[in-house]
Each structure stands twice: as C-alpha cells, then as structure tokens.
Write a structure and sequence with these properties.
Radius of gyration: 19 Å
Structural class: mainly alpha
Order of helices and strands: HHH
Strand content: under 5%
Number of strands: 0
Number of helices: 3
Distance between the termini: 62 Å
Largest sheet: none
Shape: elongated
Length: about 100
C-alpha cells in the first residue's frame, strides 16, 4: 500500500501543479522538481497517516489533493511575501 500512496501522490502532484506552472509562466526547471518534491512530501505524510489510521482509497485521494494544494499554497505565499535586503543608492541626487 505504501508504494501506491507514494505513486498516486506523485502523479496527482504532477497533474495538478504542472498546468498551473505553465499558466503562471513559471519556468519548467522550477515547476517539475517542485511538483516532484511536493508529491514526495505529500506521499510521506499520507503514508504515515495510512499506517496509523486505516482509511479507504478515495479518502486517501482526497487527503492527498488537500495536502498538495496546502503545501503548494504555503510555498507560493512564503516565496511571494519574502523580505529581500535592499541596498539604497549611494548617489546623493537619487530619489
């Protein structure tokens, strides 16, 4: 069952996140590895939950979809609201 959970997490992650990356014009060298990492993380979390609680396959799929969306949204928000260091110009006449 563990390989089924990891495989389905990877497939769902790729199906959900790659079209969004294409729509938002995110480079594929970031989208594909990011989708794979989100899928692996989701698979590991769901595998741990499945080992503790015996849940049905459709419940596993719903849990995976919510985790993929939640992890992806968290990463996008973290990247969007970063606070980079700003270096002011040294020119005295600069506004």
């Amino acid at each position: 069952m563990t390989w089924h959970v990891l495989t389905s997490s990877l497939v769902l992650s790729l199906i959900l996140l790659i079209p969004l990356g294409i729509k938002w014009e995110i480079p594929k060298k970031i989208t594909v590895p990011g989708s794979i990492m989100v899928g692996l993380l989701t698979g590991l979390i769901v595998r741990g939950i499945v080992e503790i609680y015996h849940i049905k396959f459709w419940q596993i799929l719903i849990l995976q979809i919510f985790l993929i969306i939640g992890i992806s949204a968290s990463l996008l928000l973290w990247r969007f609201f970063r606070d980079p260091e700003r270096i002011p110009p040294e020119d005295k006449n600069a506004i």
